[in-house]
């Protein structure tokens, strides 16, 4: 009698394994692979959505900047500024309140004034190597420190009209 014939004796053999089915194993492997691909697809879908949201944000910002630039360009082109306002008297020839030809003149200070340097350049040819101060000093030395030189300069200064707020001697006009 064998052990398997007795009802109370258990068999010591391992239970029999079901026979392997290659088609079923392939289906199980494909299901696992499909599940992994679904997870990966969900990941990439989320990445694409995040990128699309970021791109929309950037494009919205760029559109706002371009709109602002277009508005500024249109505003800059269409804005017409009024002419500069100047205060002065027209129609009356200006005369100095003081007679500068009778006051003592600081010729060194006068030579440093840009209006006098311009006057000296117009009256006497500049050698080219001199700067404007050296040329004005040479002009004074050539003409001498005379009253007619100062009177001619004062007349030139008034006729030029470029320095309405300044006297010929470089002081603020009253």
What does this structure look like?
- The chain has 174 residues and is mostly helical.
- 57% of the residues lie in helices and 0% in strands.
- The protein contains 5 helices and no strands.
- The protein has helices at residues 22-78, 107-112, 114-123, 132-143, 147-160.
- The protein starts with 21 loop residues before the first helix and ends in a 14-residue tail after the last helix.
- The mean pLDDT is 80.
Compute the average pLDDT: 80
Biggest sheet, open or closed, and with what strands and sense?
A: none
Total strand count, please?
0
- Helix content range of the residues, please? 55-70%
**Global Rg:** 51 Å
How large is the count of helical segments? Answer: 5
The quaternary state of the protein chains shown equals single chain
Strand content: under 5%
Measure the end-to-end span: 145 Å
Shape: rod-shaped
Layout of secondary structure:
Elements: H1 22-78, H2 107-112, H3 114-123, H4 132-143, H5 147-160
Give a summary of the structure in a few sentences.
By secondary structure, the chain is mainly α.
Relevant terms:
single chain, 174 residues, mainly alpha, 5 helices
């Amino acid at each position: 009698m064998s052990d398997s014939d007795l009802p109370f004796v258990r068999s010591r053999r391992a239970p029999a394994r079901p026979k392997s089915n290659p088609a079923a194993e392939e289906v199980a492997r494909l299901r696992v692979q499909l599940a992994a691909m679904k997870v990966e697809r969900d990941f990439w879908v989320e990445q694409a959505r995040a990128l699309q949201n970021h791109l929309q944000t950037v494009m919205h910002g760029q559109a706002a900047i371009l709109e602002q630039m277009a508005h500024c360009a249109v505003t800059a082109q269409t804005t017409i500024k009024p002419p500069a306002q100047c205060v002065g008297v027209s129609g009356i020839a200006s005369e100095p309140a003081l007679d500068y030809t009778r006051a003592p003149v600081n010729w060194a200070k006068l030579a440093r004034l840009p209006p006098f340097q311009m006057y000296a350049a117009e009256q006497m040819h500049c050698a080219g190597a001199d700067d404007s101060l050296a040329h004005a000093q040479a002009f004074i030395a050539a003409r001498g420190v005379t009253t007619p030189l100062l009177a001619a300069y004062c007349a030139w200064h008034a006729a030029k009209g470029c320095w309405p707020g300044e006297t010929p001697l470089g002081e603020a006009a009253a």
